[in-house]
RNA polymerase, sigma-24 subunit, ECF subfamily (Cyclobacterium marinum), 170 residues
Amino acid sequence: MTTLEFSYSLTKLSPSLKPFALKLTRDMDDANDLLQDTMVKAFTNKDKFTDGTNLKAWLYTIMKNTFITNYQRMVRRGTFVDTTENLHFINSGSTIIENGVYGDFAMNDITKAINRLDEVYKSPFLMHYRGFKYHEIAIKLNIPIGTVKNRIHIARKLLKDDLKVYTTIN
């Protein structure tokens, strides 16, 4: 096959490869880039194509392999490799000193806010917090399940309003 015939065949098959590229990348711009990379690789490696074989299948294989290579490259770029000899230092606290007082302040404020809730809201909320299911709370408190859900929702809303100072901290 001459270079001109090969180029014509690539141009003719290009539209049929686009849906496959879009399926792989799930993005139109990335699909166009992948299609272009595939066509460039196919044209530069035209001497490896054997006449009489399925050109479309060959192009699909190039596209799939190009996508996998690009994906692996992207994953490797985001991977941190620790080359230190003492791996136990990775999670050691010697480099970061935390002051637990902020957590203590927050926990004290949360406890006070919960204690300020009316008992009708506090009991179902604390039971739910401790792991009880809605239907278990309803049976234990002898109230309808809808009331349980409503009271827990109101308790959360009241706590959120009372503790809004903690929602603005980054």
